[in-house]
Amino acid sequence: MALAEPCRAELIAVGTEIVIxxxxxxxxxxxxxxxxxxxxxxxxxxxxxDNEARIIETFSIxxxxxNAVIATGGLGPTQDDLTKEALAKFLGRRLVLSxxxxxxxxxxxxxxxxxxxxxxxxxALVIEGGEWIPNPNGTAPGQYVxxxxxxxxxxxxxxxxxxxxxxxxxIPRLVDHFGGTRKLVSRILHFCGIGESDVDARIADLxxxxxxxxxxxxxxxEMVLRITASGPTExxxxxxxxxxxxELRRRFAPFIYGVDDDSLASVVxxxxxxxxxxxxxxxxxxxxxxAEMITDVPGSSAAFVGGVVAYDNRVKASVVGVRAETLxxxxxxxxxxxxxxxxxxxxKLGATYGIGVTGIAGPGGGTPEKPVGLVxxxxxxxxGSRVYELRLRGSRAxxxxxxxxxxxxxxxxxxxxxxxxxxxxxxxxxxx
Length: 432
Hints:
The protein has helices spanning 16-19, 26-37, 52-65, 83-91, 99-111, 159-177, 196-201, 204-207, 234-252, 264-274, 289-295, 313-320, 324-330, 335-349, 396-415; strands spanning 8-14, 41-48, 68-72, 95-97, 125-127, 131-133, 142-147, 150-155, 183-191, 213-218, 223-231, 256-259, 279-283, 304-309, 353-359, 374-381, 384-391. By secondary structure, the protein is α/β, with parallel strands linked by helices. It has a six-stranded mixed β-sheet, sandwiched between helices. The chain has a five-stranded mixed β-sheet with strand order 14-13-15-16-17, with helices on both faces. A four-stranded antiparallel β-sheet has the order 10-11-9-12. Helix 10 packs parallel to helix 15 (396-415). The longest helix has 20 residues, at 396-415. The chain is elongated and about 80 Å long. Residues 421-432 have low confidence and may be disordered.
């Protein structure tokens, strides 16, 4: 029978490699999102190294403020895998060998034609009074223990092992226990061509609401608004979200390009396919990053013809067709060069649209006339060609990322017949 108390979940990532920054704690995001889908809230995230005393202390803190604790990592066979041992000591319970868990570990090695190393017997130890959680993809069974009002789940660190155990065991157990909790639903709106401060100044009447909440987040070269509602059912949440989303679209329609998991590359590719169009790119300062963003989208080959990294002027001229006179007179970083890159790659690769990007990403190479962050994006298509001048700020990586996103944004506008959005009356792009 489901209890009335709400789930107050806490996530603990165990591993020195996480604490010192060698790997990213991706579990925190993934598990939080999964619990939110079922109306369960994560209140705290923490990370702790492979030190038994500190792991015990972390469990102690979690037990006083949370009623569901999910720890990932530290369930391997080596001496520095200490999560299970630390929780057992904190709870004052013994570790006992589970014959079922041992058989599962032995079966893993047998299926691979290998004898099980003796040290892997450690992975079949279960906290007294607890349950072991089958691991279909590895040798580290998980653990479940209920103690003094707190549900403890121990899961292995490798994502391919953790995910099925989370889905098949942890979520059903928590839903069964906290099944009466409210649902939580979010809608994400993606913006480009407008800054976070500009949006924030125009949504003060929406961000002050408690349900749904509206929160802006800055990204590299774009921003998002997250609308989050809670309610007894998912449909009740959507009833709260829809009018807010409609109002935001009314205020910012020209700048909203997608929702939820959309990206600039994915919406551009979708529209290209819908119109039977194709794209080719010629990149200088972005060095292939634009093509990478595009080909990261599954199915991109249906609309993306290919690209040229025209870093050296000889490649710009011989491969893409930029005129030697243009390079000599205006230089590689110039409006005419960007235009000819776009027109040339479109013609050479036989695409409907061509994009050319050239600029100074820094940190060196700038001059008073052509400073770091000056980027030209050329766009060639059936309606002719345009060049957008960008004045970007940030590190070399930021300038390259923002250049790619601006290029995709300009093509998105062109594909939607809104190519003047975000341009001043000189035809130059917004500075930022």
